[in-house]
TrEMBL record:
<dbReference type="GO" id="GO:0000155">
    <property type="term" value="F:phosphorelay sensor kinase activity"/>
</dbReference>
<feature type="domain" description="Histidine kinase">
    <location>
        <begin position="593"/>
        <end position="801"/>
    </location>
</feature>
<feature type="transmembrane region" description="Helical">
    <location>
        <begin position="12"/>
        <end position="34"/>
    </location>
</feature>
<protein>
    <recommendedName>
        <fullName>histidine kinase</fullName>
        <ecNumber>2.7.13.3</ecNumber>
    </recommendedName>
</protein>
<dbReference type="InterPro" id="IPR005467">
    <property type="entry name" value="His_kinase_dom"/>
</dbReference>
<dbReference type="Pfam" id="PF11845">
    <property type="entry name" value="Tll0287-like"/>
</dbReference>
<keyword id="KW-0902">Two-component regulatory system</keyword>
<keyword id="KW-0547">Nucleotide-binding</keyword>
<dbReference type="InterPro" id="IPR036890">
    <property type="entry name" value="HATPase_C_sf"/>
</dbReference>
<dbReference type="InterPro" id="IPR035965">
    <property type="entry name" value="PAS-like_dom_sf"/>
</dbReference>
<dbReference type="InterPro" id="IPR003594">
    <property type="entry name" value="HATPase_dom"/>
</dbReference>
<keyword id="KW-0808">Transferase</keyword>
<feature type="transmembrane region" description="Helical">
    <location>
        <begin position="220"/>
        <end position="242"/>
    </location>
</feature>
<dbReference type="Pfam" id="PF02518">
    <property type="entry name" value="HATPase_c"/>
</dbReference>
<keyword id="KW-0175">Coiled coil</keyword>
<keyword id="KW-0067">ATP-binding</keyword>
<dbReference type="InterPro" id="IPR021796">
    <property type="entry name" value="Tll0287-like_dom"/>
</dbReference>
Length: 804
């Protein structure tokens, strides 16, 4: 176990002063404590003696004055305990005193006490035994715990005198009043001059002792604070007046002896305190001056020879430094051309062997793989020294007889491995070459770290590029002027849909008129979308959600953003279909209930109308009755349409010649159209795939669409165009277009709602297209409406896969 020995003279001085001050403080604190304890001891003893004197005075007064006076006025065989018993009177008086002053403890006890309350306890019995063993002792005093409280206790024995034996001797001699009160068993049998009881007085000292301890502690704290202030003051003046000059002198010695060839002298003078350093420094400086004087004398004798030797050394050093510069330049060039560790070491190892005249060079990776790279390549992996862990942790090279182990580390916290050079045993490595090798090890570590970082960046770039290119949504990276910096394949495809030719870099087609980013072609337009998706609807029916995410940068790169474009056309269409389905379901339930409740009264109206018609002959009344029956029938037809709309329609699917079914319906409709001067055009694709559907539903769909078209066009100039052709491999498109006034945006959004109609009042119920929508949905298809010089309804029906 090493002992603590301060090396700083200031520390030694302060430790010495501290030891002296601490000793003085302990001495005075102990003296104060013992002095206060002595005062307390004398005070409590005085209080105890005062109580004993008081009790003795009371008992003496009773025996010598009160008892004879009372005896003179009462009968001889009478005895008044309250006036004649000294024990009773003294105990009663002290009980009153104790009740008024809770700090005192008084007990007068006896062995075989007449009153059991005053019988001795175990501690009091031991005190009685003490007085019996030491009959000459008049008092016993000491400190005891009574009821958990510290007391100063003083006790004296009770010796039975001859006058006491009247009541405490033989029971037959005792007064009758005593026997009647206490009986004849207890309190008797005592003999003259025998010790049979104790008088005990206790004075509490716990509070006083606590006060002494508190006072002593306060003194110690005050003393400590004063000493701390004194320490700071002494340290300040000692540091200013003494240590400053000593440190300046010591620093001067260190400055004079800090050269490498004088490091041994410097090591000798740093093992003591400042004064010892100065003394040792003066001795070493004198020795150094003596050696310098001898060297000067030798130099003066061999000056010419030494100049030649030094010139050769300088030439050699200049050549080595040039070789070092050339080595660093070539290594730097190799680092820039290397992409892996193996390439870097295969380039660097031959250069290092050539520069330092080594036989071989090896790099051993110590991070994870423990691979090694050697030159010549046939060189085996060299054995590492026993302290190779210290080489890695301390980042300090180790040079043995003909080997050197240099840590390859970019910093002290990251060591890549160990670089080993092997020389011929005759070669000596200079201190400067060792420093150069250490610097090369650090540069190689930095280069390896840079290669790792570059490889990680390239890998992350490839991963991010693959992620961005693999995204289905278009993503663009633009600068503050909305010039395209980077775009993924989806963005190029989207741009090609506007410009015709996808652009690999600029994706300029996205900024053309009518394209997605038309409003974003300026910086102000692009800023409006920051952190908030923007919904854009194009004229061709497509809809996009554009989100712009700004990149926090400064300088010339400020304002760059990532633009994400998402095609939400199908989402919007699906939402419209869902809303339409919900509307139809809600209205269907309402229509079913309404039709059921109204149809019965209408049936009653028609029934009674027919009965009235058979019994009336007045032509005017019959005409009115026909009007009633006509409108009742019309109302029933509307209700029937409602029921057809509301009731679930069981659809039986079967293979259908759709072209023939449509041709038949068109042929029937053409007759009605020609009466109104409306031209009907019909086109059917020859390669129409087969379809499985319901013929009745197809006829009803066509009838509603053709009737709507006939109502929408002008008689004499109207044209209705029906087309039927394949739409991809999985769908057949039935297209019905007219050259009427078309539909506005609001009407297109509500056209399939029940009871919605653009016709005049009385010309339509608004249920036709709602029924068409429901039928198309039941067939597994979809219906769309648009404006193209009139209303265009497109019905997409699922085709049978593989069929022609």
């Amino acid at each position: 176990m090493t002992s603590f020995k301060p090396k700083n003279i200031q520390a030694k001085f302060l430790i010495g002063i501290g030891a002296i001050v601490l000793t003085i403080g302990i001495f005075f604190a102990s003296g104060m404590y013992f002095h206060l304890s002595s005062l307390l001891d004398s005070q409590v003893k005085g209080k105890a003696d005062l109580i004993f004197n008081q009790v003795g005075a009371v008992q003496s007064y009773v025996r010598e004055v009160l008892r004879p006076e009372v005896r003179a006025v009462i009968a001889e065989d009478e005895f008044i305990i309250e006036a004649m018993s000294s024990s009773y009177i003294s105990r009663a008086i002290m009980q009153r005193v104790a009740s008024d002053d809770k700090e005192y403890h008084y007990r007068r006890v006896a062995e075989n006490a007449r009153n059991p309350l005053f019988e001795m306890n175990a501690e009091e019995s031991r005190l009685l035994g003490y007085f019996r063993k030491h009959p000459d002792e008049k008092y016993w005093e000491g400190y005891r715990k009574l009821g958990g409280v510290e007391y100063f206790v003083k006790a004296r024995p009770v010796v039975f005198k001859k006058s006491c034996l009247t009541c405490h001797g033989v029971s037959k001699d005792a007064p009758a009043v005593l026997l009647s009160r206490y009986g004849d068993k207890r309190g008797f049998g005592h003999k003259e001059n025998s010790v049979g009881g104790l008088v005990i007085v206790g004075v509490p000292v716990e509070k006083a002792v606590a006060g002494i301890n508190k006072t002593t502690a306060r003194y110690a704290i005050l003393y400590g604070c004063v000493m701390i202030f004194l320490f700071v003051l002494i340290q300040f003046f000692f540091n200013r007046l003494v240590m400053g000059n000593i440190r300046n002198l010591s620093r001067k010695f260190h400055t004079l002896l800090k050269d490498e060839d004088k490091s041994e002298v410097l090591d000798k003078i740093v093992h003591g305190d400042e004064i010892e350093e100065v003394a040792q420094g003066i001795e070493e400086l004198g020795e150094h001056l003596h050696q310098a004087q001898e060297q000067l004398r030798e130099h003066s004798e061999n000056m010419e020879q030494m100049v030649e030797v030094r010139t050769d050394e300088l030439k050699k050093e200049v050549h080595e430094r040039r070789a070092d510069v050339d080595l660093f330049v070539r290594l730097l060039d190799g680092f820039n051309k290397s992409f892996t560790r193996r390439e870097m070491w295969q380039f660097a190892l031959p250069l290092l062997v050539q520069r330092f005249n080594a036989e071989s060079a090896t790099f051993i990776c110590m991070v994870a793989s423990h691979n090694h790279f050697s030159w010549p390549e046939s060189t085996p992996k060299p054995a590492l020294p026993e302290n190779w862990r210290e080489i890695l942790t301390e980042v300090k090279p180790v040079f043995e007889k003909n080997r050197g182990f240099i840590p390859v580390a970019a910093s002290e916290n990251l060591t890549e491995g160990i670089f080993c050079l092997v020389w011929d045993e005759s070669v000596e490595i200079s201190r400067q070459d060792q420093d150069v090798l250490r610097a090369i090890g650090q540069q190689m570590g930095i280069a390896m770290e840079n290669i790792n970082a570059l490889n990680n960046l390239l890998h992350q770039k490839d991963v991010l590029q693959a992620i961005v290119e693999g995204m289905g949504d278009p993503v663009l990276f633009v600068d503050g002027n909305c010039n395209i910096i980077l775009a993924n394949e989806a963005a190029r495809i989207l741009a090609g849909s506007f410009s015709g030719v996808p652009s690999d870099v600029e994706c300029a087609g996205l900024f053309l008129e009518g394209a997605v980013l038309e409003r974003c072609s300026s910086e102000s337009g692009l800023k409006c979308h920051d952190n908030l998706p923007c919904k854009i609807a194009l004229d061709d029916g497509r809809s996009f959600s554009v989100s712009v995410f700004p990149i926090e940068e400064s300088g010339e790169k400020q304002g760059r953003r990532v633009v994400c474009i998402r095609d939400i056309t199908q989402e919007k269409q699906m939402l419209v279909r869902m809303q339409q389905s919900e509307k139809l379901a809600t209205v269907g339930k309402l229509a079913a209930g309404l039709a059921h409740e109204i149809n019965n009264p209408l049936g009653v109206i028609k029934c009674y109308g027919e009965l009235l018609k058979d019994g009336l002959a007045n032509p005017d009344v019959l005409a009115d009755l026909d009007i009633i029956l006509k409108h009742a029938s019309q109302a029933q037809n509307v209700l029937q349409d409602l029921l057809n709309f509301a009731r679930p329609r069981p659809i039986e699917l079967a293979e259908l010649d759709l072209a023939g079914a449509v041709a038949n319906a068109v042929g029937v409709f053409r007759v009605q159209a020609e009466k109104n001067g409306v031209q009907v055009l019909y086109f059917v694709d020859e390669n129409l795939p087969s379809i499985t559907t319901n013929a009745q539903a197809i006829e009803q769909i066509l009838a509603n669409l053709l009737n709507n078209g006939l109502d929408a066009v002008k008689p004499g100039s109207g044209v209705i165009d029906i087309s039927l052709y394949s739409s991809g491999e999985e769908e057949v498109l039935l297209r019905v277009a007219d050259n009427g006034s078309g539909l506005d945006r609001e009407s297109i959004g509500n056209i399939f709602d029940p009871f919605f109609t653009t016709k005049e009042v009385g010309k339509g119920t608004g249920l036709g297209l709602a029924v068409v929508y429901g039928l198309v949905k039941d067939l597994g298809g979809r219906i769309e409406v648009e404006n193209d010089n009139g209303a265009v309804f497109s019905v997409y029906l699922p085709a049978e896969k593989g069929g022609q």
